[in-house]
């Protein structure tokens, strides 16, 4: 399982650990990933996803998983979440028509 957020695409970053004597050694900054279950209102289905804690706050701010997916770019989403986004778009198009 990769250390990547399924909604925002956040991955580990590389940087330096700097000692008191200013010696720099490589280190990795890992994202704060949490396993959560998000519910899609349009589909009436729950999805278990591994996302960053910051992404979870953004989902709450935008008003749920459906609203987040509608604003999200496809290149940031995982392949599974792209499929969910397409299903939500179809369901909303049916409801509008």
Structural commentary:
By secondary structure, the protein is of the alpha+beta class. The chain has one domain: Ribosomal Protein L24e, Chain: T, CATH 2.30.170. It has 3 helices and 4 strands, in the order E-E-E-E-H-H-H. The strands form 2 sheets. A two-stranded antiparallel ribbon has the order 1-2. Strand 3 (33-40) and strand 4 form a beta hairpin. The protein is elongated. The N and C termini lie far apart (40 Å).
Output mean pLDDT: 95
Topology, number of strands:
4
Q: Can you tell me the number of structural domains?
A: 1
The CATH superfamily bears the name Ribosomal protein L28/L24
Helix and strand element order: EEEEHHH
Q: Kindly identify the CATH topology.
A: Ribosomal Protein L24e, Chain: T
**How many alpha or pi helices?**
3
Instruction: Please outline the major beta sheet.
Output: 2 strands, antiparallel
Q: Could you name the ranges where pLDDT drops below 50 across 5 or more consecutive residues?
A: none
The coarse overall form would be: elongated
CATH architecture: Roll
Tell me the strand order in the biggest sheet: 1-2
Between the first and last Cα atoms, what is the distance in angstroms?
A: 40 Å
Radius of gyration: 17 Å
Helix content bin? 25-40%
Q: Output the structural class.
A: alpha+beta
> Which strand-content bin applies to the residues?
25-35%
Q: At the first level of CATH, what is the class? A: Mainly Beta
Q: What topology does this entry show?
A:
Blueprint: E1 13-18, E2 24-29, E3 33-40, E4 45-52, H1 53-62, H2 65-71, H3 79-96
């Amino acid at each position: 399982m990769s250390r990547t957020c399924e909604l925002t695409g956040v991955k580990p970053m590389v940087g330096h650990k700097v000692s008191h004597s200013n010696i720099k050694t490589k280190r990795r900054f890992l994202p704060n990933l949490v396993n959560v279950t998000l519910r899609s209102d349009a589909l009436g289905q729950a999805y278990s996803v591994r996302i960053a804690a910051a992404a979870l706050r953004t989902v709450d701010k935008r008003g749920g998983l459906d609203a987040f997916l509608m604003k999200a770019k496809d290149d940031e989403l995982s392949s599974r979440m792209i499929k969910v986004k397409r299903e939500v778009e179809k369901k909303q198009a049916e409801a509008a028509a």
